[in-house]
Each structure stands twice: as C-alpha cells, then as structure tokens.
Amino acid sequence: MLGPTRPVPRLGAKARISHFGGDVEIGVVCGLRDAGRRVQVSCESGEKLEFTLSPATAKFVLVGSAHGAEMELEAGAQGA
Fold this sequence. Notes:
By secondary structure, this protein is mainly β. The protein has one domain. About 0% of the residues lie in helices and about 40% in strands. It has a 6-stranded antiparallel barrel with strand order 1-2-3-4-5-6. A hairpin with a 4-residue loop joins β3 (about 40-45) and β4 (about 50-55).
C-alpha cells in the first residue's frame, strides 16, 4: 500500500512559510481541519496564518489570497 508523497500535517510540526517577494519564516502547526487539508500555523512573528491544500498544485496556500504565502512542512517533522 502506498503512503502519502508529502509530509502529513501534525500538530507541533515545523513549517516553512514562503511569502510573496521572497521572505521566509518558520512556524509551527497549531491547528488542523478538514482531514489535514486546512492547516493553521503560528509564525515566529506571532501571527497565525491559515493555509489550505490547493487541489490544482497540491501545495498549501494562504487562505483568501491568490498570490500570498505558501507553506510547506519541514521534511522529517513529526510533531508532538
């Protein structure tokens, strides 16, 4: 049986957020909805952002923004 080809979101997992324009920050997954297809991340700036899995690109994109940040889970992030 095949498993997922990308890391599965888990509470406490580290995330890398790439903002439009090239800025990058680290965050931690603090909420999950819709079977892991919607993820809330607490950023190092103190802001909480919500991302949804895009069916077109299979990437997590900022909710409500066509050209906003993208989030990817750090490889090997197991969470708490």
